[in-house]
Structures are given as C-alpha cells and as structure tokens.
Specification:
This protein is of the alpha/beta class and 139 residues long. The chain has a domain of 92 residues: 3-Layer(aba) Sandwich (Rossmann fold). It has 5 helices and 3 strands; from the N terminus they run ααβαβαβα. A 3-stranded parallel β-sheet has the order 2-1-3, sandwiched between helices. Helix 4 crosses helix 5. It comes from Rhizobium meliloti (Ensifer meliloti). This is ATP synthase beta subunit.
C-alpha cells in the first residue's frame, strides 16, 4: 500500500503499489489540487519520482503547475539536479498526433525511472483528451 499522506484517501480508498487509480470528477472540484498534493507528498515522504503528462492542457494550467512545483520544492528551476517530477505537455492548440504522443512520452519517462529502480507515480490528465486525440488521428 502506498501511503499518500492524505488521510481520507489512505483510510477510504488506499492506493496499491503497482496499481491503477482513476480520479474522476467535474470541472473545478479539485482533481489537479489532489494530484499536486500526491506529487508533493510522494516526493518528500518517499523520495519517489512523479511524471505528469498533460494531454490537451491549457498553457496557463501547465505554467501554473510548473511554478507550484518549484514553490513547493518538488522541482528545481530549470529541472536541474534534485527535481522529483517530470512534466510533459501537449497543448490544446497542437495537432491531434502531437497530443496523442504526450501520454506515451510520459510513459516512456516513467519507465526510465522504473528501470533505474525508482518508485514512480505516473499521472495522465486528461485521459478523455488522450482518447479523443487518438480517434482523431485514426479517422
């Protein structure tokens, strides 16, 4: 079991190491806030790495998350030594092929950390936009 440091998650819906979790909710309910909290807690408590793949994100959202990571100490400015999170983005205005590759690029980064023997949390936000981009490419 992965101890997330978020009491309600650890008590009601604990995360299994090596498992998959879906985080579903409407707009503005705090999904990204919860993801940020998970990344922060895992980096500080477990020394693990996190990979965030933002598929079809707005430029502002990606920029905000990047700066929040720096302010919380999870990442160093410029992604230098000591950073604990990798951020991969494909923005809304990019072609569907580029957006579809964002999640796969994030997965490759996560696999690299895993191959180095590190614990990794891999986040894909937004899985709907990922499947939508895939269907646009195949059409």
């Amino acid at each position: 079991i992965l101890v997330t440091g978020i009491k309600v998650v650890d008590l009601l819906a604990p995360y299994a190491k090596g498992g998959k979790i879906g985080l579903f909710g409407g707009a503005g309910v705090g999904k990204t806030v919860l993801i940020m909290e998970l990344i922060n807690n895992v980096a500080k408590a477990h020394g693990g790495y996190s990979v965030f793949a933002g598929v079809g994100e707005r430029t502002r959202e990606g920029n905000d998350l990047y700066h929040e990571m720096i302010e919380s100490g999870v990442n160093k400015h410029g992604g230098g030594e000591g950073s604990k999170a990798a951020l991969v983005y494909g923005q809304m205005n990019e072609p569907p092929g580029a957006r579809a590759r964002v999640a796969l690029t994030g997965l490759t980064v996560a696999e690299q950390f895993r191959d180095e023997g590190q614990d990794v949390l891999f986040f894909v936000d937004n899985i709907f936009r990922f499947t939508q981009a895939g269907s646009e490419v195949s059409a």
